[in-house]
C-alpha cells in the first residue's frame, strides 16, 4: 500500500501519461531496498570497491605529519612520500589532501648567492645612493652600462630535473659529460638603449686557429681600449655613460682602474676600489647576471651547436636580435630590486621576486 501511495502521488503531480515512467523506477528502487533489507537488515548501501573517500580524520593526520616533518628540518621542507611511509595513506591521497583540502602547493628551495655579514651594509649603502641618483636625474639609470663575462660550454646543460622519458621499461638513457667541455668566454655590456658585443676572449692557436683564453688584466684592458671605448665614441655615448663592473680580479688591476678613470672620470665608474663601490657578491643587482646570460643561454642552446664556431655564431645572432624594449625592461628591473633590497635590510632579493 505504501508503495502504491507514493506512485500515486508522483502520478498526480506529473500527469496520468507519466504513470509508467514514474512508477516503474520507484518499484525497482523499492524492490532493491526490500532485498537489501532482507539480506542485511539495513537500508544503507553496501561498502563499495575502489578508492575510499578522504575523511576529516585523514586530513588532520596528514596536516600533523607534514607539520612535524617541516619542524625536523632547518628549511621547513617535507615529502609526500615520507608522509605516506609514516601514515600509511597513499601518496596520491596525501597530495589531494595537501592541494585540494589544505590549499598547499609544493615550492622548490631557491639557491641564492651567499652573503657575508658585512655585505648587507655595503648593499644598502649602494642602493640608497643609486636611488638618490635616479631621483636627481631620471636618465641616470638608463645610461649605466652593465658589463660582465660569462662562459658558454659547447655541450650546454641538460635539466635532468624536468627531463623525463615515459616508457613501459627503463630505457637507460644517459648523457656522457667530459671533464672539461670546450667553451667560449664572452663579454657584453649594455645600457637601456643599446648593447655592445659579444666580444670573445681568445688567442691564436696553430691547430684550430683560435682558442679560448683566460681573462687576465692585460686582456681585459685590451678589450676596453681597443673595442669598448671606441664603440662608445662612435655612438657619442662616452661623455654620458656610467661604466659598471663587478669586483673580479682582472677588473680591478691598477692599469685597468687608471684607464677607466681617464675614460669615464671617477663619478662615472662603479667598481670595487673606486669612488662608487660596487657591493661584493651581488649578482642579483646587475641585469647582466639576473637577465642577460640566462636569456642568451636559453636561446643559444635551442639550436644544439656542435662546434665552437656554431656556438659563437649563435651567440652573435642572439645578441643582435635583442631590441631596445628588452634592454629597457631589464634595466628598469634594477629599480625594483634596489627598493626590495632596502626593505629586507640588504639581504638577498631573488627569492622575494619569484
UniProtKB/TrEMBL annotation:
GO MF term list: nucleic acid binding
Source superkingdom: Eukaryota
Record Gene3D superfamilies: Ribonuclease H-like superfamily/Ribonuclease H
PANTHER family with a match to the protein in the record: HTH PSQ-TYPE DOMAIN-CONTAINING PROTEIN, TRANSPOSABLE ELEMENT TC3 TRANSPOSASE-LIKE PROTEIN
Designated name of the protein: Transposable element Tc3 transposase
Native source organism of the sequence: Stegodyphus mimosarum (African social velvet spider)
